[in-house]
Design a protein that fits this description.
The complex is a heterodimer of chains A (303) and B (405). With 303 residues, chain A is of the alpha/beta class. Chain A has two domains: 213 residues, P-loop containing nucleotide triphosphate hydrolases (Rossmann fold), CATH 3.40.50; 67 residues, 2-Layer Sandwich (Alpha-Beta Plaits). Chain A has ten helices and 14 strands. Chain A has a six-stranded mixed β-sheet. A four-stranded antiparallel β-sheet of chain A has the order 2-1-4-5, with helices on one face. In chain A, strands 12-13-11-14 form a four-stranded antiparallel β-sheet, with helices on one face. The chains are: A alpha/beta (303), B mainly alpha (405).
Amino acid sequence: MKLSVNEIYKSFGEKNVLKGISFSAESGKALGILGRNGAGKTTLIRIIMQVFGADAGTVLLDGKPINTEKVHIGYLPEERGLYPKQKIMTQLLYFAELKGVDKKQAKATADKYFKELEIEQYKNVRLDTLSKGNQQKIQLIAALIANPDIIILDEPFSGFDPVNAGMLKNIVKELIKDGKMVLFSSHQMNYIEEFCDDIIILNGGKSVLDGSIKKIKRSYARNVLEIATQESEKSLSVLQNADLPFVNKAEIIEGTLTVTLKGEENKPELIKFAAENLPDMDGIYIKEPTLADIFIHYTEGSV
Amino acid sequence: MKQFSKVFKFEFLNIIRSKAFIFLTLLLFIGTTVVLFYPRFKGDSKAPSIGESEPTRLAIVDSSDKFGEFIKENMPDYEITLCKTADEANALLKEESVDGSVVITSPLTYTYSVNDMGLYDETANVISELLQFKYRETRLSEFGLTDSQIAEIQSAVAVPEYKIVGQDQSQSFLYTYILLFMLYMSVIAYGQMIAQSVATEKSSRAMELLITSAKPDSLIFGKVLGTGFAGLSQILVILLWALVCYRINAPFWENNFFIASIFDMPLSLIGYTAVFFVLGFLIYAFLYGALGSLASKMEDIGTLTTPLTFVMIIAFMVPIMSISTGKVDSAIMKVLSFIPFCSPMAMFARIAMSTVSPVHIAISIAILILSNIGIGYIAVLIYRMGILMYGKPPKFTQVLKQLKK
């Protein structure tokens, strides 16, 4: 399946929240939706889920307008919420039935995840007796119980300890492997990089960047190199004393010797110089921007 | 429709499984049983009374010596002390050895002094009656009538024979009162429950999942009707149980006019009760649901629902006061019979306690049905807007502005 979102506009009163957002996502892949707080992510998600309509623009699934009565969308909202005073299985089945899923089937799906998330003992207790992490797991089951084709996860890792985060990671990987379409919104960039091939960055109601993470990183100038060495200080002074014409700047950033060249074409010259002159060098690498760097670059200063 | 039935079932089961509901039902159950079985175990058919009261103590000052003994003879329920002077009586009153004093100044005038005037103080009436009797007796004998002629005149009583063409208000008063009160209580209780339940879904953010799983129309209709159905079943079960208890104990209640009148309700009225009860309940319940959706915290509910609760109180108080004073067909009651939020109580009270033309009843019901549809529609609009809104509850004018869009 292919989801394509075209030129979505939405305003609430005077406030223009979305100003022409377009992107597409495919089954079997995860798309990272990034944006600062208030960038319009939740509004976008609600439009995709048909909670309300867009002022202009279309949401198409395989070329046809999306119909949430036919295709199931699983949703893990950022604002976690279920019925605190209800028995867990009762409310999970209720949400599944609302989506039109057969009760037996829903129960089987729920059972599977209860086992996988190691919380089988909590099926029939009230939600508010559970710890935060376990409530989070229930929330995840609620998102997956209808066996959805499209899964929207909004900050799924917040509140999880590393062990639970590992469990969740496995489930997300499994979903992608099973050919589900995953839309993944998070501020924890390492998770985005781990799961998503493609990202879209929202800022000021527009998508300021979209495409594959690899390509985006490639598009940055490749003229910054990191030199791995045990003798950073000594190496730095060697470089500075040599006063090489193709080096713009040499400095130590967070303990790593980092050299900015005049241009990409000067790489061989630096490598040659380093191999011959620097003491105890382990290697030279291109310094790629992190996703966080890219995010800050595109969103700093405005919302 | 499928979603609606799921929501309906979920909400209905939620309520009837709740501790509060079970507790209240049990309480009503026990209460009904105790009251209706009471005479069977008491062994006589008298209605329960609240203990025996002590006799009233009265001081009487009669300088003419003509009335004192006569009054004492004819007021056996009173503990009467005859005094010589008013001062003596006042002293007794002051030290509270008597509850009141009567100072007779002439055959037809007297002063009745009392420390605290009771709500049902009949003393003065009785004294007046006795003095008038004595006065007529004296005057008639002065005209030369014989004692037997005087006795005949004094004992003459006009006996009415009742022929009631319309409704006997003394018959219908109690059950009308009870039914109005039940409607009032269930709207207040279950209406608040609906508002709270919507607000809880919002504050616990279960709403985030609900709105992405179901249509808002299904959510509010399912909740309002599911809750309403739970409330109605509770009332129905209690009423049926009361009827069963009454039938079992019918012989013991024979002489109790009030209780018997409740269970002698005409059949047609049961139909009207059902119609006005359901429509009256729903029109308020829709609005309580809509108002609940505007709250983000439980604390907001009070402020939001107070105006509606006030409307309900007025719609309840006017008919209650009208039936208590016997003026069910007053101009205001006639007007209220056609106003949607008031007609369930006003029109019902009039049907039960007076004679209303069938055309008027039909018009009133038609208006109520149309208003229910209209209010249901508006409630969905408010709900749709409210459930996505967080923060301070909007002002009424803001809601209207949003609705226009």
